[in-house]
Design brief:
51% helix; single chain; mainly alpha
Length: 122
């Protein structure tokens, strides 16, 4: 479960929460959150569900079993549009890397029309 500790840390930092602040939201000591993030302790299934709900991700994402943070809409319906499965998690990347990713995506979008046909091959 090495991915769990990294994902928990990244999700916590994304919300600009300290270990102590996150612990307070779950009535846990800062040391418990620290042990989760160091991989010295593993939350039980109920706590995993609570953490997943708090961060609006799936338990599978938290455990590193999936790279899809949340394949569901706000009303709980599974998203069937495959384009939603390719959302990039750019958290933790330097600004320059995020800028390069965004530029590359814009470049690829320019290359294809709305039907997915390569504009250059017409």
């Amino acid at each position: 479960m090495a991915d769990f500790q990294n994902r928990l840390r990244n999700l916590r930092k994304t919300l600009n929460l300290s270990q102590e602040e996150l612990g307070m939201k779950f009535n846990l000591a800062k040391s418990t959150i620290s042990q989760y993030e160091l991989g010295k302790r593993t939350p039980d299934s109920a706590m995993l569900e609570r953490l997943a709900d708090f961060f609006n991700v799936t338990v599978d994402y938290l455990l590193g079993r999936s790279d899809i943070k949340n394949p569901y809409t706000d009303n709980g319906i599974l998203i069937k549009d495959p384009s939603h499965y390719y959302l990039l998690d750019k958290s933790g990347l330097p600004e320059e890397a995020v800028r390069q990713i965004d530029e590359y995506i814009a470049f690829i979008k320019q290359k294809y029309d709305q039907n997915g046909n390569n504009e250059n091959k017409k």
